[in-house]
Design goal:
The protein is mostly helical and about 170 residues long. About 80% of the residues lie in helices and about 0% in strands. A two-stranded antiparallel ribbon has the order 1-2. The mean pLDDT is about 90.
Length: about 170
Amino acid sequence: MAQFTITAAEGKMARWPHEIFLINLIFNHVFLFCISIFLSKSYPYSITLVPIASFAIIAYIEFKSRAIATSNAMWFVKAHWQIGARRNRIFMALLSVTCIISGGGIYLSAAQHWNAIATKALIGGFGLLPFMVALLILVVLGNDSVYQARDGKLPDNYLAKNPHLQPA
């Protein structure tokens, strides 16, 4: 882990992509998901709010990281926005696969007239369980990145892949 001297303002700006990412993961995919499951009897499409809100937040992080990359922001801030955007793209792919598996399971269940309990077990086991495990890993990585950004640290493997972003 490489240590750099940064100002408090730079540390705060570098933490921002990781904090937005964590808000998406924790608030949206844990709390909002639990609430939508609770409301699913009365409002069956309430669960669709979770991926819709998530894709909106993902799009914000992606567009903002591209804007930061072309701006005159400090190199350390740019580096953390790139790290956040990379994790964001990984999460977007993971969320897309989960939505396809869940949507496909619901479609197959309706088309084949499967038992509702078996359908929920299949969707939960093949779609949601791996997603939740990956979500936990991403929360831990995101939380670590917040502290790295605050303390002026960057991973060595990131610096090896991006020597053009290092200070002169």
